[in-house]
């Protein structure tokens, strides 16, 4: 790849990561992910914002682009670390070895993380909230935005050009050959939309209250370009991605989309036998419904749809006196991601004494789900069970429709 020019003396140096690995060791990336770093040449100072992990050729790719921008060995004044997660710092020791006198600027909390992760203490300096750094003709300003996505996170604003280097915030999964939002094809924009929602739900959702606080903090800034460390650079519509993140963050407390996510598992078809009644009941009120079979659908995609939806239906049988294990795992992920308050139904089959419902009730309480009904039956469902399922699903959909 070649560096992409954002403004005079401002470049993105990016790496495209393929789909072989799971992101954070959990989340599939069938279309890969971008790792974006940024270079600023201001006056006589040279700055690199956020790094990469030595992953799928990323370090070599970034290295080559730095060389092409005349940032050869020793020729760098500052490294800015907005966020310590290894996708943005994994190659830190190697990069610092190339620029031994470089100054590393980061948040207060990042100082000890740098020490413990990379054993680097020399030339590391914490910046304060709102502090500015004069590069000669270009000014950087730092804003502490904790917990988007680790406690040490900050953002860096290039004042003269109005560029916000936001790291994980405003990011997306997926690889994009073109750097900017306005360079994407129609097809790429559709992909970007779902990969932004999935990235948010998987990586950021549990920090939604901090996202809302962080965005409020940026309110007074004249942001002309949003430059995240994953995904594309938003220059034609910087407000679009900020407002989009605000909406995604709002899904935690609500309001959410008038949609229903139906997650179901079945070993021998007895639980599945009720699925069509549930789906038809929801559809009869005209609501969009996302039907997701577990474990066949990875929790990454389940969480994406559950995050946005006001309605949640869980279908699963009893397994060894408890919930069907893959559904337990999915509910654990949903609970950790702060999925709360959904209007909910549960259905499922058992063989002799059940047990799934008891364990589900614990999740329901912990997640403050607004449970609208349960259809549980021994063996296969009766016509009466099917009718009840249809009616309960319809009533819930009607309530969501408002
Ligand atoms: C490995 C296994 C464990 C089960 N454990 C229980 C159990 O502890 N209690 C119970 O009532 N039924 C248990 N069952 C019976 C199932 O809940 C029952 O067959 C149900 O109809 C399965 O629904 P499905 O066809 O949707 O998979 C178990 C079934 C299997 C295969
Ligand atoms: Fe992160
Ligand atoms: Fe990241």
From TrEMBL:
It comes from the Bacteria. Residues 260-397 form the Flavodoxin-like domain. CDD domains: flavodiiron_proteins_MBL-fold. SUPFAM superfamilies: Flavoproteins, Metallo-hydrolase/oxidoreductase. SMART domains: Lactamase_B. GO terms for molecular function: electron transfer activity; FMN binding; metal ion binding; oxidoreductase activity. Pfam families: ODP. In the N-terminal section; belongs to the zinc metallo-hydrolase group 3 family. This is Beta-lactamase domain protein.
